[in-house]
């Protein structure tokens, strides 16, 4: 079956992202990718999140008048009624709130998501989309879609490697064979003899609240139409094959999604306005030589204490390398900035750029002066680093980030671990300045790692080009969905 834009012009996707930047950003990119295939997307989200998406969507629609428009449908989310503080519509709120316990609020936030159920039912019934792409954290979405005979695709937001690793951990429980939580073991059943420790592994208790919730996520995945993965085949072929053979039988790799952003404005603003003038930032990078700058970012949820931030600053200074460092802090005149060593910015003037708040990450990673990436291994960041051909320093903190680290250091061999021993969820295990200095130096001079990283970036670009592996998977998905729609139309006729 062919894939001309005409044929698929009427495919209509509902995209229902988890309300966190790490999920909203790839969802917006996904809508753009669908649009380039002639399909229409409606993003379902709450009022405050819709404000973040409005500008980039408007600009995309304006720049691409020949494509189907991306639209937003606003969902009601009455925070007070749901026992949440006013404005708590995004995990950003949870992690930047200083008065409330992050754990309690996160749990309430997760539970509140079921509030969307009726609204989603109503929208599917009235707008009749051809497919619902819903985040893993809304397991009930499979049943809702099924009720109206609409295929539901699961979007985890992570790659194959971590999905396969956690499957093998559940199945074989290799952590039970070691005497202590710090003793390394090989993940049984997972291709590649990958080594990890128990204290780096995400919650394993299947009877806990989160354990039960994750079970329902897996069940909804099993009953869904399949899984969409922001990855590309050449990056993790063994794990893509393993996932399709043993974990979820149907999956489509359609990434790296971030590569859909070609224009400066698209790369500069992907859902949140940068805290620095993007042109200034690029001007600063323009003054540096090729591959000479290391970029440091810990994503959207990590918060380090002052002691740790001081160690990072000191380690960077000791390494002698130029850097761009994004710190989850807002600049304030009263703030004495006790998280920086005395006189740090004067001493590193011209050598280092600190961005307080939000960085235009993809613009920075793509700049030729950027030659290394110190990352917390969130999947979006990791894949953006891969797409930019960068060797990495891995500094995982929580979630599935330790698995992602092992992909970089043990499988792809394009990075060096800073040596975090334990999962700490959002705070981070303490790392000394000496370690920071050592790994920054190692990554910035490691020619073999850089060569491999650049090869992967080339593969990523080919994957999303017409006829590339991700492009073809997307075509196959579109064909299947058209077929489902045809069948449904036939059923309705008879
Ligand atoms: N990001 C950004 N600027 C920042 C911090 C993050 O543009 O200052 C983007 C980053 O490019 C990525 C996303 O936010 O697309 C973070 O997702 P990731 O999965 O890496 O980490 P999370 O925050 O979800 O742990």
TrEMBL record:
Gene3D superfamilies reported for this sequence: Glycogen Phosphorylase B (3.40.50.2000)
InterPro entries, A to Z: UDP_glucos_trans (IPR002213), UDP_glycos_trans_CS (IPR035595)
The entry's keywords: Glycosyltransferase, Transferase
Glycosyltransferase found in the keyword field: yes
EC identifiers of the protein: 2.4.1.-
Highest taxon above the source species: Eukaryota
This protein's record includes keyword Transferase: yes
Pfam family membership, one: UDPGT
Any one GO molecular-function label of the UniProt entry: UDP-glucosyltransferase activity
Family (UniProt): Belongs to the UDP-glycosyltransferase family.
Protein name stated in the entry: Glycosyltransferase
Organism listed in the record: Microthlaspi erraticum
């Amino acid at each position: 079956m062919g894939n001309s834009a005409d044929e698929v012009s009427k495919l209509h996707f509902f995209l229902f992202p988890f309300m966190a930047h790490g999920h909203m950003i790839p969802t917006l990119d996904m809508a753009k990718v669908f649009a380039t295939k002639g399909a229409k997307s409606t993003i379902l989200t709450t009022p405050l999140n819709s404000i973040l998406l409005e500008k980039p969507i408007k600009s995309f629609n304006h720049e691409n008048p020949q494509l189907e428009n991306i639209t937003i449908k606003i969902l009601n989310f009455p925070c007070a009624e749901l026992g949440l503080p006013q404005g708590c519509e995004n995990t950003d709120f949870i992690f930047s709130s200083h008065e409330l316990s992050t754990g309690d609020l996160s749990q309430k936030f997760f539970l509140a998501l079921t509030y969307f159920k009726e609204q989603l039912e109503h929208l599917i019934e009235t707008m009749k989309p051809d497919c619902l792409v819903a985040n893993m954290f809304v397991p009930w979405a499979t049943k809702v879609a099924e009720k109206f005979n609409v295929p539901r695709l699961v979007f985890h937001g992570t790659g194959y490697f971590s999905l396969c690793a956690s499957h093998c951990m559940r199945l074989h429980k290799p952590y039970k064979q070691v005497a202590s939580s710090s003793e390394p073991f090989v993940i049984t059943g997972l291709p590649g003899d990958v080594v990890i420790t128990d204290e780096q592994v995400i919650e394993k208790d299947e009877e806990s609240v989160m354990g039960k919730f994750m079970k329902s996520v897996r069940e909804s995945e099993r009953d869904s139409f399949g899984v969409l993965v922001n990855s590309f085949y050449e990056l993790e072929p063994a794990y893509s094959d393993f996932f399709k053979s043993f974990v979820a039988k149907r999956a489509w790799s359609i990434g790296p999604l971030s590569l859909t952003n070609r224009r400066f404005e698209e790369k500069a603003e992907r859902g949140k306005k940068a805290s620095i003038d993007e042109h200034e930032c690029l001007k600063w990078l323009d003054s540096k030589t090729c591959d000479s700058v290391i970029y440091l970012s810990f994503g959207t949820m990590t918060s380090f204490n002052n002691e740790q931030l001081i160690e990072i600053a000191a380690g960077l200074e000791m390494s002698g390398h130029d850097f761009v460092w994004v710190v989850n802090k807002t600049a304030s005149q009263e703030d004495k900035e006790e998280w920086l060593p005395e006189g740090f910015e004067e001493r590193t003037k011209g050598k280092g750029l600190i961005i307080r708040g939000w960085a235009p990450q993809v613009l920075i990673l793509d700049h030729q002066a950027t030659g290394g990436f110190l990352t917390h291994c969130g999947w979006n960041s990791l894949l953006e680093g891969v797409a930019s051909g960068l060797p990495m320093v891995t500094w995982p903190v929580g979630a599935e980030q330790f698995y992602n680290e092992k992909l970089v250091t043990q499988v792809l061999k394009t990075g060096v671990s800073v040596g975090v021993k334990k999962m700490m969820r959002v705070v981070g295990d303490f790392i000394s300045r000496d370690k920071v200095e050592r790994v920054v130096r190692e990554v910035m001079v490691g020619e073999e790692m850089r060569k491999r990283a650049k090869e992967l970036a080339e593969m990523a670009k080919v994957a999303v080009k017409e006829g590339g592996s991700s492009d073809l998977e997307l075509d196959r998905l579109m064909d299947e969905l058209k077929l489902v729609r045809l069948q449904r139309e036939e059923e309705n006729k008879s």
